[in-house]
Description:
six-stranded mixed sheet, 28% helix, five-stranded mixed sheet
Amino acid sequence: LRGVESFGMLCSADELGLGGEHSGLLDLASDTVPGTPMSAILGPPDVVFELEITPNRPDCLSLLGIARELSALYGLPVHKPVVNVAESGPEVNGAVKVVVENPADCPRYTARILRDVKIGPSPDWMARALEKAGIRPINNVVDITNYVMLETGHPLHAFDLRQIRGGTIHVRRARPGEKMATLDGIERELDPNMVVIADAERPVALAGVMGGAGSEIQPDTTTVLLESATLDPAPVRYASRKLMLFTDSSYRFERGVHIESVEAASRRAAQLMIELAGATLDRGVVDVRIPPAAPRHVSLRLDRVRALLGTDIADARILEVLRSIELEPGMPADGAVRVGIPGFRFDLEREVDLIEEVARLHGLDKIAPALSAAAPIPSADDAPVRRVRALREHLISLGLQDIVTYSLVSEPLMNLFDPTDAARRIALPRPVTADQAILRTSLTPQLVETLGRNRARQVTQAAVFELGKVYHRDDAENYSETLRLGIGLMGRPTAGGVLDRKPPTREEMFAWI
Length: 513
């Protein structure tokens, strides 16, 4: 190092870029021979893919979900973990009771108990897998719940059973003014719009978001209550945003977790705890759930697939694509097929959704582009279009710049210019943001806003115009849209009609517009 032979250096995992741990040294096995390449100890360099999953595909927030997609794309089988769980402990139903106060908040809750658990570090392969996914390893039990979440897409939580008072789990709404300390050590005030997991005395977890301090796995924990549930996304989303707690668990619950994967994920975690923590599993599972829903089916017209995509896809190919993503098409009858939808595909509701799946998996590159068919209509009156185009060209020739602004504006901005026209405004019932909540009734507010934004950036003179529509309603709830011209000038006019560089006052700016 720097020309001097080094006989060793003490490094943490963080210093070597092998993890986030920097509180101690990275321990290697005592029989490791000096000079051994790290790749021979920790494995060769790996590739980590960062995937951006759209909100409508929560099934892809897991290794299993991505494997399904790759299986469909490459025609390869999906290799799922083989889960064989030995239940050798006492009967679980005598050890814990689960009460779900409102099944709409928690359609399914399962609990398993594992005894004789030995808390310790996770094996290297699991710790490295979690680190690659951005999750800090903690101990073998907690790491297993996180690993299974990444594998199946289903969040789980492990409690120290000693800390569950009264031997009962209550899934309920938080009480007004109720408080709890979360795992990050912060005491938070809850409200009845949030769902909590509680024991007989107090909340022990904020459902779907974060566990509570005091019931977590400790170094001396020997008996674990393993929770696996599915929750209504709305209270989870509310709690996460109200308390500014954004976790891997809340991210998945907000988008939807398949109710039928609850018990399978729990069994997978129990299997790993038996293998990696020496646990003994109680017999059975506490499973509180709503009745299973009827299977969902969507009818698909095969000719409609070809017509909408504009390409000739054989019936057999359409059915092959559907089966590749674990859909269940029946036998075609009268040119249509009834397709069974698996529960984990929340996004498939209509015929067009199935057609989209066929398009993307068959290959958009295989759909030949078609020239649009357009025919002139001699009797059409295009005089209004010609007048608008002539007006735009004339204004540009005078030195004005054509701008385009959003048709949606904020109510405070409109009130600055004409608060008396509030009754004529058209408000969106569910605006995405407060800045785009109503349809504009005038072009003036955004013209002034555009000039002001330029003025804040040392542009002292400007000449702009917009040809755009404004929107109104009358007392009879009739709606209208009108094309308007707005012109905005910023600067001080001279005798020759030229704008000089001296900035105008606010009153002059309004006068010139």
